[in-house]
Amino acid sequence: MSTSKGGGEEEVGAAFDRDLHVQFFVSMLHELPSEYEGQDVNRLTLAYFAISGLHILNALHLVPKKEIIEWIYGLQVLPSSCATHENGVMYGFRGSPSIGIKMNSLGVTPSLHDGGHLAMTYSALATLKVLGDDLSRVYREGIISSMRMLQQPNGSFSPLSLGAETDLRFVYCAAAICSLLQDWSGMDSSMAIDYIRQSQSYDQGFGLSPGLESHGGATYCAIAALKLMGQIVEDSTTCEITSPVVDVQALIHWCSQKQAHSGGFRGRANKDADSCYAFWIGGSLQILGAFKFCDKMALRSFLLTCQSKYGGFSKLPDEWPDILHAYYGVCGFSLLKEPGLDPLCCELGIPVRTIYASPA
What we know:
41% helix; two-stranded antiparallel ribbon; 8 strands; 13 helices
């Protein structure tokens, strides 16, 4: 029996414990441990992890859908509740109700910090789709116009109007938002594609921005954004994956090299394998039509060493589980076609059937 903090070495006959992971996500959805207090501004993304995870596990019936849909719409920044674009506040979704608290005690002037955030807007739309919402209450015009203002002269995106990091994470978020809203007028795709090109390193992987080291998460953001923008396609006759922007075979080679001796994927050369890269690298290989080339048995064995006896997955073996690694660990098992799990739409990070499902 394991004596580790959160999991342990894989035992003989160890199996993926679906029911334990369901229990973990349900518990996280209802009450987060105090260690997550510092992540309050990202509460919407934490909810996305739990809800999409439960959908992949075929346990969405345990989620109070209507209640959570209303909570998400309560985080939407609308014209009647915040300043105009001219005052620097953007539309979209807040990450938490705490961000919407007015700084002025009289409630006269909304805080400039009360605005939409690109990553939180992606999390909101993705979660609403998972819950079966038709997005009819989304302020599309405001989100699209805000996105146009967030795109930088070099093609990248800032996540919010007050200024922040600009890198491939937010290029991906912008592409995913446009895809989910089925409206690509919110971004100059050619500028974004040029930025993606500039972020590719000498070894064919992608850094978060031009000149930075190749990284598994950044490479996923680049590949998924290009897929969403129609720049990575599958030939209907030969089933070959091609792209006018990147060398697909070179990218497959880069991703394949990230499978470590432990069986897991790592984000950078000479780093330890980490359970979340089962999605970041595994999902990239899936988009490129090459997940079949990884050592699936070795990946499964590694993920099982990160499976916690409390449910969820830890980043590394023998550590406590957390909701991010729990979600991407479950995504990894979905890619491995674990029986009973929903397949993923890797480029959007949500189950395939949520994209085509009729609104609830």
